[in-house]
Amino acid sequence: MRRPLNYEILKYFTNVDKASAQDIYLALESEYKDHKAFNYDNIVESLMTAKENGLIDEDSYELIDNKLVVYYKASDEQKKTINYYIK
């Protein structure tokens, strides 16, 4: 049984140094492509919500093909919190 999409997005940050919405989309696509909410905009919204709730932080920005790409990361303390609540 797979985790809810938002949980899986958060868990992703416990295994990487940083990631963008596109990175997450590509990493989760094979498992969640049939999930109703699995699209780029919902991933961005999930990331912004996680940031506002203190579960991840913005790390850096990059302009790629005239699109702003935001990278997020989880500190060690944030990873502990994520892992405590999401098994």
Radius of gyration: 12 Å
> Structural class per helix/strand content?
alpha+beta
State the end-to-end CA separation.
13 Å
- Order of secondary-structure elements: HEHHEEH
CATH-defined superfamily: Winged helix-like DNA-binding domain superfamily/Winged helix DNA-binding domain
CATH topology: Arc Repressor Mutant, subunit A
The stretches of 5 or more residues where confidence is low (pLDDT under 50) are none
Give the helix tally: 4
Secondary structure: number of strands: 3
In what range is the share of β-strand residues?
Answer: 15-25%
Shape: globular
| The CATH architecture | Orthogonal Bundle
**Top CATH class:** Mainly Alpha
Number of domain units: 1
Strand order, sheet with most strands = 1-3-2
What does this 3D model show about the protein?
The chain is an alpha+beta fold and about 90 residues long. The protein has a single domain (about 5-85), classed as Arc Repressor Mutant, subunit A. It is about 50% helix and about 20% strand. The chain has four helices and three strands. Strands 1-3-2 form a three-stranded antiparallel beta sheet. β2 and β3 form a beta hairpin. α2 (about 20-30) packs across α3. The protein is globular.
